[in-house]
Amino acid sequence: MKIKNLRWWIISLVCLVTIVNYLARSSLSVAAPTLFTELHITEQQYSWIISAFQLAYTIAQPICGYILDVVGLKVGFFIFAVAWSLVNMAHAFVGSWQGLAFLRGLMGLTEASVIPAGMKTSAEWFPASERGIAGGLFNVGTSIGAMLAPPLVVWAILTFNWEAAFVITGGIGLVVAVIWYLIYNSPEKHPSITEEEKNYIFDGQEKHLQSTVNEKPAMGVILAQRNFWGIAVTRFLADPAWGTISFWMPLYLTQVMHMPIKEIAMFAWLPFLAADFGCVAGGFLTAFLIKRCNITTVNSRRIGFTIAAVLMTAIGFVSIVENAYIAIALISLGGFAHQMLSTLVITLASDLFKKNEVATVTGLAGSAAWAGQLSFNLLMGALVVTIGYGPFFIILGFLDLIGAVVLWTVIKDTHPSETNKSPKLAAQS
Prior knowledge:
Layout: H1 6-38, H2 43-71, H3 73-90, H4 97-111, H5 114-125, H6 128-159, H7 162-183, H8 195-203, H9 219-223, H10 226-247, H11 249-255, H12 261-267, H13 270-292, H14 297-312, H15 324-352, H16 358-387, H17 390-410, H18 416-419
Helix pairs in contact: 1-3, 1-5, 1-6, 1-7, 1-11, 2-3, 2-4, 2-16, 3-4, 3-7, 5-6, 5-15, 5-16, 6-7, 6-12, 6-13, 6-15, 10-15, 10-16, 10-17, 13-14, 13-15, 14-15, 14-17
C-alpha cells in the first residue's frame, strides 16, 4: 500500500524513538531526590554519576554516527535502542552510586546514537527546504521525553518504588525498538513511498552533497573543514544549558525553591513543553526565510539561531528571582530558546555535508556539545554547594550569544545559489 506524505510519518517515527530515549535518560534526574535518601548519594557523587553518562556519550557520538553511516539506520538504530533500554532496566538492581555511574556510562555509549540517527533520517527523507521543520519535529522528542519523565517516574515511585521507574521506562524502549525495525526503511527501499514523493525528495536535495551508495565518510576530511568546527564550537557553547535543565532542575527546585516532589511532577515538565515549541518554531522560521524572503538555507539557520540566542539571555534572571513559579517560567523560556537554536545548528550538518557524512558529522559535533555539558556539569558539582546556582544561570544566558558570533564568522555558505533554490511544495503537502 502506497502512503502519501510518507516522509512525515517517518520523521514522526524518529520522534517516537527519541521520546523514549530522553524518557530513559531523564528518569535518573527525576528520581534523584529519592535516590539521595535511599542510596545516601551526595551532590558531588551525583555529578560523577551524570559525568559518567556525559563522558561516554561524548566519546560515543562520532562512533555511533559512523556505524549508522556504514551499517544503515534500520539495523543500527534498532540495536542501539534495544541496548539502552536493557541498560536502563538494569538500574533497578544497583545499590550504590558507583553502580549507577557504571550503568549510566553504558547508557551513554548507546543513547549517543539518537541525534545522529535523526539527522541522517532528515537528510535522506527531506528536501533542503523542509529539513529544518523535519529536524525540529524529531527534536521535539527530546523535550517530550523529558517532559513525560516527571509525572511517569514520580507515579512509579509513589505507586511502587524507585526501581519500578527504571523497569517501566526501559520496557517502553524495547517495544518502540521493535516498532522501528518493522516500519523503517530508506526512501530507495521503502515499499510504501510513492514515485511522486520519491522524486520530490531527491529533486529538492543539494546535488553537490550527494554520495555514492557505498561511499564511506572520511574523518580526516571532515575534521579539516572550517564548517565542521563552526558547528562543533557553537554546539559546545550551547549544550550546557540543556544539560542543566535536564539534570539539575529537579534538584534546584527541591533544594533552592523547596518544592515537594508532587509539585515537581506537576510543574517540572513545563520547560520541556516550551522546548517542544522551540524545536518546531526554528524550522518554520527558516522555511519562511528561504521561501518568502529569498534567503539562503545556511543564512536562514544563522538568523534563527541569533534570535534564539537573544531570547536565551532570559534564563540569567533565574539567579535573582525568589518565586519558584517565576523561575520555572524563565527556565521554560530558556528551554524554548535553547531547543530552537540547538535544532538549527544541528540541522546545518545536513545542509553543509554529504548524505553519507551527516551522521558522522553530527556525532563528532555532538561530542563537542557533550564535552561542553560535561565540563559545565563537573563545575556545578564542585561549586554549586559553595556559590549556589545563580552564577551558572547567568553564564548560560550569554554562552549562545558567543555561539551566534561563531556561526556568522566561521561557517562558509557553500553553493548559496543552489541551496537558495527549493522546489515548490507538492500538492499533497
